[in-house]
Input
Amino acid sequence: MPSNDDILDIAAAAFADKGYEGARVDEIAKDANVNKATLYYRIGGKEALYGAVLERIFSTKVAALHKMLDSIDDAEQRVRAFTSILIGGDHPEYFSAIMLREIADGGRNLPDNVLPLMGRTVGALEKTLTEGVAQGRFKPVNPFLVHMMLVGACTLYSTTGPIRCRVGALAPKGSSLNMQMTINDAANAIADMLLGGVGAVPTPRET
Output
């Protein structure tokens, strides 16, 4: 019998691939090897299933962000860790695809229980940027706008792999268009650009 986490993994893939409207509970139940009644009993209908998928994703990220805030003092390293947490995790492409769909739909299907968790991710970034200003490392910036920039860059990179491969195949040899980075390398590059924008001088990373 699959665990609830196994079911949520399959549901996350379905919501990422087909969106909230296109995903079907009976197909998710079939792929998870449970009957529909069992799925409804253990988790609930489509709305509850979608909420559970997003709550698990955001709860994991929020827990990692708070651990980061407690364990890292340097503001620059916090930004790097924040970016890695935002873009990383299990199946980051699922999270990114779901969020891009919600952004396009104006958040129409976002459950109310997920909104406070989203606010806490912005709060973790705000704390990081505020302390960076206090350390003399950053200039004052709007945390919410910075968060939107990060979300945009991270989600687009995570979801555009097939497009980037097709474009890269047509680009001249050595072009930046045919350079494929890992998720971690992309997170570091995005963090470098952000740190330059907020006034920090990025320190060399060990290779």
Remarks:
- DSSP finds ten helices and no strands in the chain.
